[in-house]
TrEMBL record:
Family to which this protein belongs: Belongs to the peptidase C40 family.
UniProt key word Hydrolase: yes
Species annotation: Streptomyces mashuensis
This protein's name: Glycoside hydrolase
Signal peptide as annotated in the record: 1-28
Length: 149
């Protein structure tokens, strides 16, 4: 019988369609492999508490989660959502793929970021008092960015 962590990992892999990432293995060079790995890593942090300014491995804010996930997948991202937006290749919604970053825009610029999980949902660290979770995109005021491999 699988442990809870093992079952959650197996379900996460099945949900994102990823293959297992071997510890110590060299990260794949292409963007889709890096992004898929980052998505899997973010999903593995489900239930981790939100904390403003936290970058993991046990607590996260939104950009801390994306930075952590991509770093573990082999790609460096800047610290804030705005900086991550400025560093990614912007793509139309029609071209979005699992593992792309989803940026939420407001009056002051980019205020939130998550990792696209397909079917209009993201993995993200929402706000104080919440936890890392999978959630439907709630705004039309979003843009998408692809992290180059």
């Amino acid at each position: 019988m699988l442990s809870r962590a093992g079952a959650a990992s197996a379900l996460t892999l099945a949900a994102v369609g990823a293959t297992a990432i071997l510890p110590g293995a060299a990260p794949a060079a292409d963007a889709s492999s890096v992004s898929t790995a980052a998505l899997w890593i973010a999903a593995s942090k489900a239930g981790s508490p939100y904390q403003w300014g936290a970058t993991g491995p046990y607590r996260f804010d939104c950009s801390g989660l994306t930075q952590y996930a991509f770093k573990r997948a082999g790609k460096q991202l800047p610290r804030t959502a705005e900086e991550q937006y400025n560093r990614t290749h912007h793509i139309p919604a029609s071209a979005r793929q699992m593992g792309d970053l989803v940026f939420f825009h407001g009056r002051g610029g980019v205020y939130h970021v998550g990792i696209y999980a397909g079917d209009g949902v993201i993995w993200h660290a929402p706000k104080t008092g919440s936890v890392v979770r999978r959630e439907r995109i709630w705004s039309k005021n979003v843009s998408y960015g692809r992290v180059n491999g």
